[in-house]
Amino acid sequence: MPSDPRQRRAARHAQPAGEHPVASPRKKPITVDRITDAALQVVAAEGYDALTIRRVAAVLGTGPSSLYAHIVSKEDIDDLLVGRLCSEVVLPEPDPAAWRQQILDVYVQIRDQYLKYPGVSRAALGVVPTNLSTLRVREGLLAILLTGGVEPQRAAWVLDALSLYVSAYALEQSLVQQRRRHSDQEWVLGREELIRRFTALPADTFPQTRRYAAELTSGSGHDRFDFTLGLVIDNLTQPQPQPQPQPQPTPASDTAG
Description:
Layout: H1 5-12, H2 32-46, H3 53-59, H4 64-67, H5 74-86, H6 99-115, H7 132-147, H8 152-180, H9 191-199, H10 207-211, H11 213-216, H12 223-234, H13 252-255
């Protein structure tokens, strides 16, 4: 052992012969794709309500400030989520002979993407899409409608209406499934119980509800989804009723005696 304290300290910290310093593993850089992956991980495991910038940063093993080099706000993450899900949607070549089925098929894909992640369709509500993957799907849907002979203004508005319905439908399905996992949510009723309650209502106040309880509670799987989209799609090429002109009031001076 060296007598000089400085030499002893140097010997204590020296690497054993034949060994090399082990470099600490470098952290993966934060990227937009990694932020999106982490956000989807949070939604899949904990639901959309748990999605925050701080929670995403924790999944990535970093602080929220690291994310702000790539995003501006939570709404940016929403846009990324919807874009990622839309990137999985397969768009057909518009076919004038099959355009109705093509529209339904694309929206079924969007619905199923939303249902994979509980509540994620909320990210699509009230947001003007800017993500290129989201705009790609919107472009494809518009092309199908125009190929089917739908007037451009009507096509533009029906895209909003159908997208809103699909998002709301997926959100409702996610909420029901979430509540059914909790035994204390007694208000989530099965069909038989709903029919029993409807038919037990006072006949003088609820005659139609009692009579049509089975119809009001019918439908399994996505029957109502298919019905609603079909109802809209099948009427897109029908002539639009023109507003009737309103009679103009007679000027007071013409009626004066």
